[in-house]
Amino acid sequence: MNGQLEALQQEALAALTAAQSLTETEAWYHEYLGRKGRLTAILRSLGQLSKEERPLVGKRANEIKEALEQALKQRQESVAAEEIQRTLAAEAVDVTLPGRRPILGKLHPTNQAMREMVEILKQMGFQVFDSPEVETDDYNFGLLNFPPDHPAREMQDTFFTTRPNVILRTHTSPGQLHAMRKYAPEPIRVILPGKCYRNEDVTARSEMMFYQIEGLAIGHRITFSDLKGTLLNFANQMYGEGRKIRFRKSYFPFTEPSVEVDVDCILCGGAGCRLCKQTGWLEILGAGMVHPVVLKNGGYDPAVFSGFAFGMGIERQAMLKRGVDDIRLFYSNDVRFLARV
Ligand code: FA5
Q: What is the rounded average pLDDT for all residues in the chain?
């Protein structure tokens, strides 16, 4: 029996040295020391030995068991250390290799143009005022002096919601009322950038969702000359020094008088080309003096206060400035376009 024990010990120690991973040492444990292990089987069969043999063999078997347990512990420690070494070697970083260039993101062209415009207007003393994209019919039309059922409402095709009188704003002008009602009767100079929605056919020049930036100044003795000076300054900073602007009479229910404003063509300088359709001018915005009814609706006495307002499309300005000929490119998520502009 003792010979059998010695042979088992030799075999077990050799097998333990061959175990190269923690999984293999685990399997070794089950083979020799586990509940159904081979040494365990011998220890269980001690009862069949004679009275004289039993203590001797039993003692030796327990010594071997302890020796194997000790050997297992040591082997597990060294296998674990080897595994760590192997992992470190596999994950080693060669610091002398050239780095990988990260892919850089950039601002969306609409945001670039919006920030540029906001910056120019802020330097002229305008403050950004946030106003909602979802509006009531009243704010979008009524309070802005659009008469009920007046065809002027059809100038801007509206997206309605399932809630009566709740619509997606068709322009940023309703924000004028929010700003006025918040600050009246203090003088104000605010700009309102944001999204607008119109139920229009999408074409190279028109989107269903687009951005506008609105400007509003109210105070004592604000005149049309202030509007002209502000817009000329804006055009010079946005499109380059020495730009000319011109005013054409127009109609908006919320301004009187109303104008559309053009800048001399940034491509041909006014001589006439494809971009300006041979006119020498590019339309950039709508503007006018705030209508007395709108002043009153906002909480200002028209006998004491006057003001001007203007509104322009942000994508259209970005298109002019960066030579983009199709507005649909802005929101079709083509990375080649977004990276270039
Ligand atoms: C207005 O929306 C007026 N609220 C502007 C205004 C404000 C006038 C304050 C007076 C005082 P209009 O509908 O022309 O006006 O739109 C203004 C600008 O928004 C246009 O010049 C254009 O640049 C842009 N715009 C209008 N519709 C679209 C569209 N479908 N897609 C892209 N840009 C558009």
A: 93
- How is residue 47 written in tokens? 């009862």
Averaged pLDDT, 310-325:
92
Asked whether 142 and 174 are in contact (CB, 8 A), the reply is: no
The pair of structure tokens assigned to 10 is 């030799």
Please name every residue paired with 258 in a beta bridge, in sequence order, or none if there are none: 250, 288
8-state DSSP, 105: P
The CATH code for residues 109-340 is: 3.30.930.10
The answer, yes or no, to whether residue 338 has pLDDT greater than 70, is: yes
Residue recorded with tokens 């009920």: 148
Does ligand 1 come within 6 angstroms of the Cβ of 252? yes
**pTM exceeds cut of 0.85:** no
Distance CA 220, CA 188 (A): 10
pLDDT digits (tens, 9 = 90+) for 64-123: 999 999 999 999 999 999 989 999 999 998 889 998 898 888 999 999 999 999 999 999
Q: Is 140 in the pocket of ligand 1 (CB under 6 A)?
A: no
Does residue 253's CB lie within 6 angstroms of at least one atom of ligand 1?
no
Q: How far apart, in whole angstroms, are the C-alpha atoms of residue 195 and residue 31?
A: 73
- Maximum Cα interatomic distance, the chain, rounded to a whole number of Å: 126
Cα atoms in the 13 Å half-sphere on the side-chain side of 173: 30
